[in-house]
Design brief:
0% strand; mainly alpha; 70% helix
């Protein structure tokens, strides 16, 4: 019942997102709606779940705040910048065929349901006390949301400087990972694995980190983002690829000397 309700709400939300895209020719709204939709799915699952009060309250709070923060960040970019290069490239294939765009937005509605599976597991957790796993889940959430917010802010500050146009951000966390925002996004899903310990559906919670890693690494995250970066930044981004780990933060292979402008 919870998944059906989440799917129906996601269909309605992504339909509104598609309508906005049709009027403004900016498909970036799909990411805004997806983020808000996943956060909303956590709240719906918590309200309709039959588990103990504590894990359900934490699910609604942590999932809702995460979705609201990410949706707000993406909305600011969508309203203040031209269409993301990934979607501009896709627009060349779709053109103005709104049937394809509608199908694309509705695919994202299905993905909201997929990423709601960990929430269903947490919402069935009968553990009423403050267990070590609950504390671990809160810790994972705090670390991941703070890390992603810092990475987003560092990139936004870099992009706001016109002198950096055509160059790659190597400030702060971006010196140690080409996609620190993706890394912390992936890490975030372990919070729900911890919160689901004790639930009869605990195994569903692993859908979060596993599916998110697959999508980020091989489907719609890193491959599309890096292809767009190579199209727009060419040699500079290729040098960045050679010196900086792809996802998991680590020290650069050697000191970056490609551009003093990009040094942290």
């Amino acid at each position: 019942m919870s998944l059906l309700m989440i799917w129906l709400l996601a269909v309605a939300a992504q339909s509104l997102g598609w309508w906005w895209q049709k009027r403004h020719s900016n498909a970036g709204m799909v990411d805004v709606v997806w983020s808000a939709g996943v956060g909303g799915a956590a709240v719906v699952a918590a309200v309709l779940g039959d588990g103990a009060v504590l894990p359900r309250v934490l699910l609604a709070m942590l999932g809702g705040i995460w979705g609201l923060r990410l949706a707000g960040h993406l909305l600011h970019r969508v309203l203040g910048e031209p269409e993301d290069g990934r979607y501009a490239h896709l627009r060349k294939a779709f053109g103005q065929d709104q049937r394809k765009w509608f199908a694309f937005f509705q695919l994202q509605a299905l993905l909201i349901v997929l990423f709601a599976l960990p929430f269903i597991a947490v919402a069935r957790n009968p553990s009423a006390g403050l267990t070590p796993w609950i504390i671990a889940g809160i810790a994972f959430w705090l670390l991941s949301v703070l890390g992603e917010a810092i990475a987003d802010r560092q990139l936004a500050r870099f992009r706001a400087n016109p002198a950096n146009k055509g160059h790659t951000c190597r400030d702060g966390l971006w010196r140690y990972s080409r996609h620190p925002n993706y890394f912390f996004e992936w890490l975030h899903w372990f919070a729900y694995v911890c919160l689901a310990i004790g639930s009869p559906l605990w195994w569903l919670a692993w859908a979060g980190p596993v599916v998110m890693f697959v999508f980020l690494r091989w489907v719609s995250g890193i491959p599309y983002t890096e292809a767009q970066a190579l199209r727009t930044r060419g040699v500079d981004y290729r040098n960045y690829q050679q010196t900086t780990p792809m996802l998991f933060p680590w020290f650069p292979n050697h000191p970056d000397k490609t551009s003093a402008r990009n040094a942290p």
